[in-house]
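Sharing a chain and its predicted structure for anyone who wants a worked example. Both blocks are below, sequence first, tokens second.
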Amino acid sequence: MGYTARGFHSGNRALEWLEEQGDHHGILGLVDLRLPGDPGGLQLGHQLSAVYRLPYFYLAQKAEDLQDPKVVLSQPAGYFTFPLDDAELHASIALTLESQKERQPGGEALLAPASTDEAILVTDLHGRITYMNTLAEDLTGWSLNEARQRPYHQIFELLDVNGAPAHHQPFNEDRVASKSYPAILKRRTGERVTILERTTSLMDGNGSLAGLHLVFHRGSPFQADDQAAPAEAAPTGNAPKFGQPLKAIVSAITDPLFAMDPSWCLTYVNRSAEQHLGRPSKALLGKNFWDTFPDSIHTKYYHEYHKAVTNQEPREFEFYHEIQGRWFEASVYPFAEGLLVFLRDVTQRHQAQEKARKLEKLEGLGLLARGFAHDFNNLLTILLGNVSLARYAQPGETDYQQSLDAAKLATNQAQSLVQQLLTFAKGGAPITETVDLNKDVIKELLNRRRRQPHLQYVFNLTEESVLVEADPGQLQRVVGNLIENAEEAMLSGGTLTLTTSIVHANARNRQELSDKLDPHTDYTILEVHDTGEGIPDVHLDKVLEPYFSTRSDANATGLGLTVCDSIARSHGGFLAIDSKLGSHTAVRLFLPTQRQRWQSKEPSTGAPKRQLNQPPRILILEDERPIRLLISLSLKKDGYHVVETEEGSQTVETYRAAMAEGKHFDLVIMDLSIPNGMGGAEAIQQIRYADPDVVAVVSSGYSDDPVMANYTEYGFAAVLPKPYEPSALRELASSLLSQSSKNS
């Protein structure tokens, strides 16, 4: 680009070189913000500005590095981020060096005063003071040292004839420098002085604006109000005159629109911009654009506006307004008088994107959980089974029993954690059965939970059985989460009330409870009510969203109510929340009611056509050897004859061979998924082709698999999710074989 460049690897070496130079005019610095050593980049920038009065630019690896308020306070001429843009680099250096020429002896003729009684004031491209002569210091009341780098409208403060702040318009609509016109200058002391002022522009070698050159001197007082004002009088408090049709269109735009001059002073705001900033246009025009926004916006996004001015190209970016708590999309367009800035509120789009990201994150968690659930649940099956067997091996030792009970409880809790993640996995539905909400869910859960001593518990449960078609484990998880939330809302004490009730299809108060109720369905209602701190209205619509939590402790995941809502919807129900801040919170779970006690599911083909073997023969398909041994050991304790297989094709072959010998199997227990082999779903189809009356149980660690939820459709008589206790396996086997015996 024709410049002479010197490079240094440390701040000290750069300062030593500066000391060796007798004249610092025409020197500009490019400072690596991450320059190591002492002084580092930031300290070196401060010294270049405060000691040597040299212009300099920071070089940053990324825009985030420039957000430190200390960077702005060190007053650089600008910033660059890597990779550097040649055109931007060239233009910025040229503009900055041009604005420094007034300091040099024999500088540009443009900077020479027209006469010795004229005051001169010079700004850079950003409207900051770079030079004032002695007369300008006298008229304004500011010294050059005090005024340097301040916005010129703070130093050169104009008033209209009524004493109101007047907007300084350096150019007319044709981009021609203004002629001399009378104005009132408000000095630093508050005194008012009538002046005549004219403005010309500083241009760089490419004809681009580099700054302003103001020349002014004392003038005659303004004419009286009944006399005509001079034709070239300065506009007072108004923006540059847009054409009336254009102004009408712009004013009607429903999004904020600003116009500013090269010194960042607002020259136009539409009605939406007035509402956005909370002030009328009279209070905004002539004000610095950056003074209308929080300091953080200036710090983070100044470089975007700077690039629009420097490169004379449009810029688009998004920013967060911390005070309003909203996201905006800014479109910045250079034009003849400065910049047009168009803001669009994109908060809803950001919220939708954030919600989509959360759902995607949850889906990823579900897929991750499902990926290891099979192996994890197999391990839990082994742990739970062996703990249960060991517990009955030494029935008389109390301490021994307590230790094993603790291990069993921890295993059940580990299973619950996996199931919470699996709630979000794709595919499958709850493994349901008819359960009594009062007896099988609430009372069973409360028997295992420890009550908080500082709380009072009230239970208003119906005397009659409350039957629902549900997965009892998932339903216990919902009730447990709701109770835990209520307890945490009453850390200082209170009352937790748990109520069950039934609302019939013809009930008059149905609409008062919820508008989501199906008019032809009876619903069971479980309500958990607390007298705690309540939920603010602004949060009520968000409490069911993933990762949203009003708790601040490290264990708050924001998934508790999300899990409850997901489980409720998978059971054909829903959650409803009522809360009043400082008073209470009531969470109601609505589930379709079962009218009669559901009967055990029969094998799909009806009664078998053969007698049970004595002892009954049971065939096992399980790829994990420890689980095969656990199943075999448990069943043999009840006198069953057990045959083990570890892959589906082996199971099919064994079953067919037994049939050929007239020694059929009375029950088959099959693992659903066999890595690198035939699993239970395929094996049962081949066995049923040979024996339609086969009685089979499907078992899997993939408890969310569709086969597990709809097992009868796949030819199974029952389902046994992993992990399970040996006692559950033996009870299921006994039940199925007893039913087969009755039907034979």
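Comments welcome. The longest strand covers residues 192-203.
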